[in-house]
Amino acid sequence: MQEVISDRIFGGFTTILVLIYKTHGFVSKTMNRRQLLRYFCVVTPTIAATAATYSLQSRLLAAHNGSKVLWDYFGKKGAKNWGKLSPQFLTCRLGQSQSPINLTSAISASIPNLQFNYNPSTLRIFNNGHTIGVNYDNGSMLTLNGETYELIQFHFHHPSEHTVDNKSYSMELHLIHKSKRGFIAVVGVFLKQGNYNQLLESLWQMMPYQESKEVRFPYITINAQDLIPQSERVYMYYGSLTTPPCSENIYWIVFQEPLEISTDQIQQFAGIFPMNARPVQELNSRFLLQSSSHQY
């Protein structure tokens, strides 16, 4: 029930945004910084905070009850049926602000600069049966529009979950951040087939092929800063987790510039997870923003 309430709160606010957009005649699909901050970055978090509280309570309740609903990307427990597997997963079926999406026809906007202050971390890698991920040491921050988010972990999907003009990339990296107020921001980075990626070497060498808990390598350090593209041009929108319980009110930032990864590296990951990407979801009444061409 909490997840459904969350959807209604945020969905209603999104409708208001669309009415404002149409009323004020932003037909040029361009928003300046003042409009962006007013309609997207300032008012929205107030509404999202209420919705996020319901979402957090739902997840904590599930953890308290010790429930673990099995899900997959294929078959009866696949993405099309997530919302039917458990009441905890209703948002996967009923949510109106779901991720991933097809990144197309975005509104050009003056987006606040992203400030990444990542520190090196001990390699703490895991295979949770759905992806390969890394839990990150405390103290690495992303600052956006005055809000600071701490990097918690990052993981990979094959192929990419988001598409650009209906085209997929070979893989996609998700860096998960959380603020002290409980807001979640996810940074997405596309990985395209190309040159060997030396930055991922230590991860790929230690990649667990079987489902396992976190494995710590105290003498190996990584720096997620190396996984951030040089270009600051991004897409931004409000969406959801791309895995159950598909909780909404997630701040998504997806870099337009992809990093390269070799065919061998892609095949190594695909040998463990041939496909761990949720299909794209409808944008519905949400804004999809992209950095203005003159911004950087």
UniProtKB/TrEMBL annotation:
Name under which the protein is recorded: Carbonic anhydrase
Q: Which Pfam families match?
A: Carb_anhydrase
The Enzyme Commission number assigned here is: 4.2.1.1
Question: Known InterPro entries for this protein?
Answer: Alpha_CA_prokaryot-like, CA_dom, CA_dom_sf, Carbonic_anhydrase_a-class, Carbonic_anhydrase_a-class_CS
The record's PANTHER family line, in alphabetical order, gives: CARBONIC ANHYDRASE
| Residue ranges of every copy of the Alpha-carbonic anhydrase domain listed in the record | 69-292
Molecular function in Gene Ontology = carbonate dehydratase activity; zinc ion binding
**PROSITE patterns per the record?**
ALPHA_CA_1, ALPHA_CA_2
Function of the protein: Reversible hydration of carbon dioxide.
Q: Which UniProt keywords apply?
A: Lyase, Membrane, Metal-binding, Transmembrane, Transmembrane helix, Zinc
Q: Which residues cross the membrane?
A: 36-56
What residue range is the signal peptide?
none
**What is the scientific name of the source organism?**
Richelia intracellularis HH01
Catalytic activity reads:
hydrogencarbonate + H(+) = CO2 + H2O
